[in-house]
Amino acid sequence: MEMAAQLNEMYTLVVQKVPQLFPDGTDVNVYVKSWIKLQELVFVLGGSLRDIDLHWDDGAGPLAKHFTTDELRSLIKALFQNTQFRANLLSKIK
């Protein structure tokens, strides 16, 4: 959990500062293919299981657009303790 918090801090700083490198801050989406995926990763690292569930939205949410089911399941397993809520969420993500 401590490592996730540190990664969240570092990636949040990247997400805040990188757009300043472009004349038009929105250009970052054009030049960095995985920009939105990075933003979603920051969301997962700082979010709760409930937040992730809402962002997954049964495979129709923003997380589903940028992460495969295997990627998201692996992140959840690495970040959260084995609880019934985690098990239920993992079973929903297929």
UniProtKB/TrEMBL annotation:
One of its GO terms (biological process) is endoplasmic reticulum to Golgi vesicle-mediated transport. GO terms for cellular component: cytoplasm; RZZ complex. InterPro entries: Zw10/DSL1_C_sf, ZW10_C_2. It holds the Pfam family ZW10_C2. It comes from the Eukaryota. Residues 2-93 form the ZW10 C-terminal helical domain. This is ZW10 C-terminal helical domain-containing protein.
